[in-house]
Each structure stands twice: as C-alpha cells, then as structure tokens.
Amino acid sequence: MKPDWDALSADFADSKTVIIADVDCTAGGKPLCEKYGVRGYPTIKYFNPPDEEGEDYKGGRTLADLKKFATNELGPGCSVDTLDNCTEEQKTKLQEYIDMPAEERATMLESLKTELKEAESKHEALLKELQSTYKSSMDSLEKLKDESAPKIKLLKAATPAPPKEAEPETKDEV
C-alpha cells in the first residue's frame, strides 16, 4: 500500500484543499496517533473541515480507490462558511441546526458522540468474544484432527483393498 499512498501524495502535492500525510506511530508521532485513536497499521484517517476529530477511511487501498475518494470526498465540506459546497438538503438541515440554541446543539453533539462511543465499545467487545469463540473452535478442531489422524490412517490400513476386476481380453482384429 505504501507505493500507492506515496503516489497519491504526489498527485495531491500542489492541492490547496487536500493534504496527504504519513505519521509514524512508533516514534515521535505516537502522541498524535493516541489522540486520534490509531491502533494499527495501516490506519487511514481523513478530516473534512470543520471536523477536527477525523474519520476512519474504510474504502479500498489501491491507488485508484484512494484517488477517487480524495477527489470526490476530501476538501472543503458543507459548513456555515462554505455554503456553496452544500446540497439543498444539507442547507436545510444546516439551517435547522443554526437556528437551534447553542446549548441544545452542544448537547445533541455530545449525545451522538456518546452513543457512537458506546456502540463502538459494544462492537469491540463482540469482536473480542467472536475471536475467542473462533480460537476455541479452531483449537478444538485441531485437537480432533490430531487425535483422529492416526486412527483414520490405521482404519484405512486395516481395510483390504477391493479386488481388482480382471481386465477383459482384447482380441486383435484381422
């Protein structure tokens, strides 16, 4: 993936709205990775203003996939400061939020963040449970294979081969 990432970075090197960057989470970038919840390599995060928390990229990892995403999805998004980038539907919803009292907006935002965090925690717990169940099942299967293999071999060895049928005589035609 690294060559594709580097090619993407080169493609957007002159962009004023899209920045492609690497962070080494094992060295000086560790605090940054911790701040944004990066736990493994390669993790791709993207930020669209005014988003300051970033989102996990879940798309394809080829240069074509990355380039398509960067071209179509990155850059200034819909916000109060960039209304020209908004669809009519987004403008309507944005106006609804603008008209909402600031405290209500903040409460709604925190509620959504909490709901998302709880769902992610439940998802992670389920993943760990499934991994544990899978490992247990795999261990049981391997044990059964190990125990069964010698028996299967001996059972096959103890079973005489079926007698070969005599091949019919062939006559030469004159």
UniProtKB/TrEMBL annotation:
Q: Give UniProt keywords alphabetically.
A: Signal
**GO molecular-function annotation terms?**
protein disulfide isomerase activity
- Pfam families from the xrefs? Thioredoxin
Region ranges (Disordered) = 136-174
Composition bias (Basic and acidic residues) maps to: 140-150, 164-174
- Does Signal count among this protein's keywords? yes
Q: Which GO terms describe its cellular component?
A: endoplasmic reticulum
Q: Where is the Thioredoxin domain?
A: 1-70
Q: Name one GO biological process term.
A: protein folding
Superkingdom, taxonomy of origin: Eukaryota
The family note in this entry says:
Belongs to the protein disulfide isomerase family.
Name-wise, this protein is Thioredoxin domain-containing protein
Native species? Calcidiscus leptoporus
